[in-house]
Amino acid sequence: MTAVQKSVPKPVPRPLPMPVGEPGLPRAVRIWEVGPRDGLQNEATVVPTPVKAAFVSRLLDAGLPVVEATSFVHPRWVPQLADAEALMTDLLAELQEEAVGLPVLVPNEKGLDRALALGLRHVAVFGSATETFARRNLNRGLAEQWAMFAPVVGRARDAGVAVRGYLSMCFGDPWEGPVPVDQVVSAGLRLLELGVDELSLGDTIGVGTPGHVSALVRAFQRAGVGPERLALHFHDTYGQALANVLAGLRAGVTTFDASAGGLGGCPYAASATGNLATEDLVWMLTGLGIEHGVDLDRLVATSAWMAGHLGRPSPSAVVRALAGTGEGGDG
Ligand code: HMG
Ligand code: MG
């Protein structure tokens, strides 16, 4: 071997961001994975139950600490998740205790009954900050949605079941336009008063921008709700999701919802596109030196595998960069 050949550097296996922190950011964050629920609820293709179960298992194996598995909603409203019982039964058989703690959406007591009948211990109610979306998504006005949730949260808490509260349309609403910060704070307080453990603020149609995120988190703080009780749930319709996460981190929020491969949307808000891709979030957190516990290679392989099942490439920039075409394969 010649001296020239010896000096040729070995290629790195794949690029990685160089961790460079920023003072004042949290040391660690919790990623709340919503791909199997928010992602698959909006797919034209109905994914077979065993594929969904493998998706959830693979996401857990990739180190995601929370994987929201499905919804116990009316099957006519969300046919893509009509197999909620079958999916959770499979997951309980495979994962046992680990499956018991997987969060599932329940809009009402009927949904809660279905989750409790399987022995599940973590549920989420999902309300709206706006009247129009409450009617479109839950067939209820604002006042009726709180009345519907009250017994759900009360009974879940009495049974020692953890309850998350989602609030949609926290930045803008396709029918009502921009949503005032004060309106969002009062709706969020209603959910917290019902007794939910944490509040996830949803930018359902992805119109939020960083200054708006900071203002909303600050407004909650002024109302007595610190960032440790909040999660941020961004859809990436206008490419603002990562910038919005950074604003959230700077405001002290440590829980972020994201969807593997950037799958997602909301069947009752036509302008809602994919969620923030978990891979893109992981890449940025790694670069900021913030702990997240996720194995990016395993996650990318999982999203590429799921893209193969859905028959379309992942919209995630990181999945595309790291998995070549993103057209799938066995991962
Ligand atoms: P409704 O038609 O008003 O229901 O729908 P109802 O209470 O009048 O009952 C009618 C029938 O539905 C009855 O049956 C009930 O038993 C049955 P019947 O007596 O006629 O035979 N029923 C149910 N069946 C199964 N499971 C249930 C259930 N509840 C009633 N849970 C309802 C009201 C809330 C059920 C309906 O509007 C619904 O299912 N909505 C779900 C919409 C949804 O899942 N949207 C997506 C999730 S939200 C989201 O994606 C946003 C988020 O990601 C955050 C963000 O991005 O902003 C979380
Ligand atoms: Mg959503």
Automatic annotation (TrEMBL):
Biological processes, Gene Ontology terms: ketone body biosynthetic process; L-leucine catabolic process
Residues in the signal sequence: none
Domain Pyruvate carboxyltransferase: 29-300
Superkingdom to which the source organism belongs: Bacteria
Keywords annotated in UniProt: Lyase, Metal-binding
Family: Belongs to the HMG-CoA lyase family.
Protein name according to UniProt: Hydroxymethylglutaryl-CoA lyase
Species this chain originates from: Nocardioides bruguierae
Lineage: Bacteria, Bacillati, Actinomycetota, Actinomycetes, Propionibacteriales
